Structure formats: structure tokens, C-alpha cells
Amino acid sequence: MDRSKFDERQAIFTAEIVERIKIKLQEAGVDQEKLEDLTAGIALSITGVIDDLAMLEVDGIEVHPYLTFRTDEDELVHWGENSYTYEKVYGAMRTLFHT
After folding, report:
1. Where in the sequence is the domain holding 46, given as residue range(s)?
2. What is the top-level taxon of the source organism (predicted)?
């Protein structure tokens, strides 16, 4: 398992999620003062689900996401444990809102 390959893809994936949330909130006319807090709150909520931090169970069926990326060579890249996209939200937020 190559942590650097996984980490790089995870950061790109998370940044894309954060950016798309921001764009959709802007399109909805969210006030600029609320935009950053709402973007962060939604992104952290979604990444918590992706990282299996949320207890997902419906009708007795537990759901445990397992994030994996495919490289150009059709190699599957995973870190061997839960993803940590939640932690990548902060860097993505800094890039989008503080550059």
C-alpha cells in the first residue's frame, strides 16, 4: 500500500467536494458571510460519512464505506484502513477561502 498515492488522491477528491459545495451554495444565493461556515459544515458532514465516522444503519443493515481510488494503470489504491477525508477539509477550505 502506498500512502502517498492514496493521500494525494484523497486530498484532490476532498478539495473537489468542498469546491462543488461552495459553488452550489453560491448558485443558491447564500450570503457571503455565511458561505464559508456552511461550506465547511456540509463538507465535514459528508466526509464524516465517507470516512465511516457516522453510524449508518437502516433496517438492521450496517453500512461501512471503504474509499478506494483507481490510478491510470487501473491499479486500486487504498491505505488499508478508513479514509481520513474529514481531515483534508481544512486544507481545502484554506485554499478556497483564504488565498
Report:
1. 3-98
2. Bacteria
Q: Please check the confidence at residue 71 and state whether its pLDDT lies above 90.
A: no
Task: Say what the pTM is.
Answer: 0.90
Copy the grid coordinates of residue 67: 474509499
Total number of domains constituting the chain: 1
Per-position DSSP letters for 23-81, written without gaps between them: HHHHHTT--HHHHHHHHHHHHHHHHHHHTT-S-EEETTEEE-----EE-TTS-EE--SS
Short-list 1, 17, 9, CA closest to 95: 17
Calculate the alpha carbon distances from 4 to 9, 14, 38, 49, 59 in Å: 9, 15, 30, 23, 38
Asked whether the predicted pLDDT for residue 48 surpasses 80, the reply is yes
